[in-house]
Design goal:
2 copies of one chain form a homodimer.
Chain A lengths: L19 H20 L6 H8 L3 H8 L2 H30 L6 H18 L2 H14 L5 H23 L5 H19 L4 H5 L9 H29 L1
Helix pairs in contact in A: 1-2, 1-4, 1-6, 2-3, 4-5, 4-7, 5-7, 5-10, 6-7, 7-8, 8-10
Chain B binds a DNA duplex (30 and 30 nucleotides) through helix 1 and helix 3.
Amino acid sequence: MTATKSRARAGGRGRPSKAKGLDLKETILDAAEGLFARHGFYGVTTRQVAAEAGVDTALIHYYFGAKRELFDAVFLRRAEILNQAREASMNAYVKANAGAMTVEGVIEAFIDPLLRISQDGGRGWKSYFVLVAQVNNTPAWGGETMTRFFDPVVHQLVETLKTVRPEAAYRDLYWCYQFLTGSMMLTLSETGRIDSLSEGECHSSDLESVRQRLFAYCAAGFEAVIAKQNKALASG
Amino acid sequence: MTATKSRARAGGRGRPSKAKGLDLKETILDAAEGLFARHGFYGVTTRQVAAEAGVDTALIHYYFGAKRELFDAVFLRRAEILNQAREASMNAYVKANAGAMTVEGVIEAFIDPLLRISQDGGRGWKSYFVLVAQVNNTPAWGGETMTRFFDPVVHQLVETLKTVRPEAAYRDLYWCYQFLTGSMMLTLSETGRIDSLSEGECHSSDLESVRQRLFAYCAAGFEAVIAKQNKALASG
DNA sequence: GCCCTTTTTCATCAGGTGATGAAAAATGAA
DNA sequence: TTCATTTTTCATCACCTGATGAAAAAGGGC
């Protein structure tokens, strides 16, 4: 009876799944992604999404159910890809540098996949990062969403860092991760604020400049905090 | 004819400004602030604000005009206070340490006022920081708003840092500022994400722990980026 | 061509939205 | 008290919101 039951499911008799419908689903997701990123969940109406995608409003509910489920579908579509890329990157780094890992190396392995995807992945990915940054700053339900999708890879980061710096306390690693993710999210969402602020010296789309600075910045931050807190602990 | 003209203005004959109305205005702003922070501009209706404030819906339009003007009023109310506190803090630091300023000292003077206000200022200020973080991540109109209100004090920060490290390029200082502000905003908005992520090791409301780490983290980041970029420049 | 299924469209609902104008109440100087 | 003025309430408008059910169209195995 509910919208959920009317959702499309493959495997009947009529049409086995050659499916123009899949293309349409993607078109809808693309439209929704761009609009949600620009205006937020409540700032977008299903009619706007339908218009942008060039489909009937009812079709959105047919494929995705409620508006919120559409949003979740948008979020989910790329989250998995992102997680796999990061996990693979970190595993590769650990494997290649087993004996000689550095804090900066681990951090680079954690962040760089996102920068690369943002550079090579086209407009869709840029919108997606804006969306994630937005969810990250949504008190009402953003935390739960972020936790559900991104906690595992964060724990992997922290554990790897712990093996590189066994003397570091988890408290410090988690605080530093929070600082790192704040910088990273703001940078990936490419708000353009740095462009006007720096009066042309910097461009938010210039991810190569980011790469040359962000890893070193965060790594030095981690090292400084670890050193300072351990020193305080020793003398306290 | 428009709502703007019906706005309250003091100085007529009837009531000179002893004004219960001013209290009501503040009540409305408080209610709006909390709701906007939690759910965003589009996630809140004027009726919700009115209900939360315990006033008639029409009263909101009477005092503030359109919904967006109400939002601007919320944003503006504390922005000025914030700017003055930061400017005063930085001026005081420069004056007190004229000959021996450090990067970390300048950064502390820039960030610490916000931490103190958040700790001492009550629930209203906490909501406000969430609001600012949200605006900071709103592509459509957030950048313009942030620029209008907060650019001056940022330039003051950058210029001060430039006097401490004259060899640093503005490019690097602006990039590092972006990293810093990302960390700072995420931390000030106290999303609670670090609480669940760290499984109880850290608490987002524990700003004393932030103080012990964030300044050192950012300062080390700045120093590392400056050193690295200058080294690259020299050898390139 | 038939027939069952999936996909797409159309018309519409119940409720909520921001906003306004007019009336009522409150206020305080004269 | 009078009365111009401000503040508050009330009723309402025109429009938009998410969502749904029924009908129409499209597909493809047989």
